């Protein structure tokens, strides 16, 4: 996370690529519509209201929120005080959501320093970037009254994540055809394109049976260690008599957004979370 470094990105509020709302507004002249960075009211009319959003209540339950229609890669935020009064947010935290159902605190709830005056702009570069549909800013401390102007930035990378992928995996050799070989054998599956989060994986079969002169035999197949980039398939025989020459299993992987919880490792290593540009 870098503060007051120039943010190279596409401004969301200025380009109306997100929908904004607030926890409360002081009145219609102090609404969220006035929260765009560097907003100034017209000197010739009073119709524009105040130079910034002003909350209806002065407590830690207040927030502003920006929601996009799809998953975005947010690279930074700028925050500024109210331009026509000594009111600003001096510290805040960031929350975000992939599906508007489950919310997560960025950097485990780290509190960021905000403004110290009306018009100074504080830039915060997100490292790693936040992958989300919705971002919210929650004031923690403020001067006189909760008021702000702000901007969010995305980069030009298109966050196009798959919802479903299909394929098959086979043992591919005679490892399990030797009675001196292992009882279990794993094969790694790499998705053609990483999901935004760890998907659900369904295999075509769970067990398969086959007959030999010695009698009926059974083997098991299981998916383990599922991540957004792939998973392991475990082929298991129940005894050394269960010799398998080879087998191929179909799979379906699908992402359920409300079941995904990003790991600390993904926060620290954004390359684990995003597919690389080609």
Automatic annotation (TrEMBL):
<dbReference type="InterPro" id="IPR037221">
    <property type="entry name" value="H-type_lectin_dom_sf"/>
</dbReference>
<keyword id="KW-0130">Cell adhesion</keyword>
<dbReference type="GO" id="GO:0046871">
    <property type="term" value="F:N-acetylgalactosamine binding"/>
</dbReference>
<dbReference type="GO" id="GO:0009986">
    <property type="term" value="C:cell surface"/>
</dbReference>
<dbReference type="GO" id="GO:0030247">
    <property type="term" value="F:polysaccharide binding"/>
</dbReference>
<keyword id="KW-0430">Lectin</keyword>
<dbReference type="InterPro" id="IPR052487">
    <property type="entry name" value="Galactose-binding_lectin"/>
</dbReference>
<dbReference type="GO" id="GO:0005737">
    <property type="term" value="C:cytoplasm"/>
</dbReference>
<feature type="domain" description="F5/8 type C">
    <location>
        <begin position="8"/>
        <end position="155"/>
    </location>
</feature>
<dbReference type="Pfam" id="PF00754">
    <property type="entry name" value="F5_F8_type_C"/>
</dbReference>
<dbReference type="InterPro" id="IPR000421">
    <property type="entry name" value="FA58C"/>
</dbReference>
<dbReference type="GO" id="GO:0098609">
    <property type="term" value="P:cell-cell adhesion"/>
</dbReference>
<dbReference type="InterPro" id="IPR008979">
    <property type="entry name" value="Galactose-bd-like_sf"/>
</dbReference>
<dbReference type="Pfam" id="PF09458">
    <property type="entry name" value="H_lectin"/>
</dbReference>
<protein>
    <recommendedName>
        <fullName>F5/8 type C domain-containing protein</fullName>
    </recommendedName>
</protein>
<dbReference type="InterPro" id="IPR019019">
    <property type="entry name" value="H-type_lectin_domain"/>
</dbReference>
<dbReference type="GO" id="GO:0098636">
    <property type="term" value="C:protein complex involved in cell adhesion"/>
</dbReference>
<dbReference type="GO" id="GO:0007010">
    <property type="term" value="P:cytoskeleton organization"/>
</dbReference>
<dbReference type="GO" id="GO:0070492">
    <property type="term" value="F:oligosaccharide binding"/>
</dbReference>
